[in-house]
Amino acid sequence: xxxxxxxxxxxxxxxxxxxxxxxxxxxxxxxxxxxxxxxxxxxxxxxxxxxxxxxxxxxxxxxxxxxxxxxxxxxxxxxxxxxxxxxxxxxxxxxxxxxxxxxxxxxxxxxxxxxxxxxxxxxxxxxxxxxxxxxxxxxxxxxxxxxxxxxxxxxxxxxxxxxxxxxxxxxxxxxxxxxxxxxxxxxxxxxxxxxxxxxxxxxxxxxxxxxxxxxxxxxxxxxxxxxxxxxxxxxxxxxxxxxxxxxxxxxxxxxxxxxxxxxxxxxxxxxxxxxxxxxxxxxxxxxxxxxxxxxxxxxxxxxxxxxxxxxxxxxxxxxxxxxxxxxxxxxxxxxxxxxxxxxxxxxxxxxxxxxxxxxxxxxxxxxxxxxxxxxxxxxxxxxxxxxxxxxxxxxxxxxxxxxxxxxxxxxxxxxxxxxxxxx
Length: 423
Ligand SMILES: [Zn+2]
Hints:
By secondary structure, the protein is of the alpha/beta class. About 35% of the residues lie in helices and about 15% in strands. It has 16 helices and 13 strands. The strands form four sheets. Strands 5-10-11-3-12-13 form a six-stranded mixed β-sheet, with helices on both faces. Strands 2-1-4 form a three-stranded antiparallel β-sheet, covered by helices on one side. A two-stranded antiparallel ribbon has the order 6-9. The longest helix is centred in the first third of the chain and has 19 residues, at about 40-55. The radius of gyration is 30 Å and the shape is elongated. Bound molecules: zinc ion.
């Protein structure tokens, strides 16, 4: 097949000086040059922008209002583009429901594996999802964490109740709350909390509501008392914070902390789902293993009827190992990844896609990569090319540049002194 080219004529975006060039399709082209020379102006602001703009033209006006807007780059002509995928260093967002496992689709394969061969059988692959009501831990709604009370700030255990052991001001000595505790006659007001037995402590902090007889102005009253932490949670955590006054929010905020869910211990799944195991591991245990260790555990599963799923898993995990991310876990939340890690996770995501004739655009993919792992990155770029894709890379690292089929050097200097293709 004759070599095809992406053709650019008369590009003048930013500092570009009427640049014309041909970029071979289905090859790796690397754009080099000093910072500010104009290489990003060619790759991102001209080629990628025009490709994305043309893509969006395919959608109707309604859809387009939801898409990012791209204005036409300043150029005489840009021809023969492919569908663009920009793999940049923008951090992956997604909140707590997006993890390494979900974004790479590895977790969905793992879920199918557990549904298929996990013992005991607990249901369809969906129940292994912490985003699905059937599978999520009901205590933390699949978050793995729960707001609770920081006891170290709430109590001073070196003091007795009479000395003001409860630091939260609703129980300050002589306050209404403190008086209720005293009148309940359930607590030794002079004993330091550090000397309380587990049972006494439990009664103070976590008891269910109970009636307390008290006298107000010589009259008997029945008042309801309950564990002070339970009361705090019901009053300030379970209800929507936004319905409280700013003053109250400020007063209670210091005592509130995010802690691992006490029911699932951070596993995010219901107890039934966690009982389902393969080779002694439940799915949450696998998701919290480093990828380098996980791949060995998967390889050790010998189950002929799951062979295709196991093969897919090993292949995808190997991509993560190959790109130097073997130290990450599948349950790692994507918004905690660095820019360099985010870009490499995106590369893996695209490696598992079966799209062909795509134009991949990379922004310094070697950033954050250990020098000894650069050759692995190069192999992945080559794999993308060998599947029939066009790969454009902006890069400084000479070890990455080695993998280029074609090099475009932009210069000679930065800013107004740049913007030309060097021969
Ligand atoms: Zn939980």
